[in-house]
Amino acid sequence: MNAPFDTASAIGPDATVQPAPDHQVAVIGLGYIGLPTAAVLASYGWNVCGIDVSEKVVETVNAGGVHIEEKDLDRLVHEAIESEKLTASLEVPTAHFYMIAVPTPLTSENTPDISYVESAARAIAPKILPGACIIVESTSPVGTTERVGQIIAEMRPDLKVPVYGSQQAGDIALAYCPERVLPGKIVRELVQNDRVIGGVTPACATRAAALYKSFVEGDCLTTNCRVAETVKLTENSFRDVNIAFANELSVIADDLGVDVWDVIKLANRHPRVNILQPGPGVGGHCIAVDPWFLVASAPKVARLIRTAREVNDFKATYTERRIRGLVDAMPGKVALLGLAFKPDIDDFRESPALEIALDLARTRGQRIMVVEPFAKELPKGFAGTGAELVSLDHALATAEVVVVLVDHTAFKHLTPADFAGKLVYDTRGMLKR
Ligand SMILES: NC(=O)c1ccc[n+]([C@@H]2O[C@H](COP(=O)([O-])OP(=O)(O)OC[C@H]3O[C@@H](n4cnc5c(N)ncnc54)[C@H](O)[C@@H]3O)[C@@H](O)[C@H]2O)c1
Question: Selecting from 3.90.226.10, 3.40.50.10260, 3.40.50.720, 3.40.640.10, what CATH number does the domain 234-432 have?
Answer without folding.
Answer: 3.40.50.720
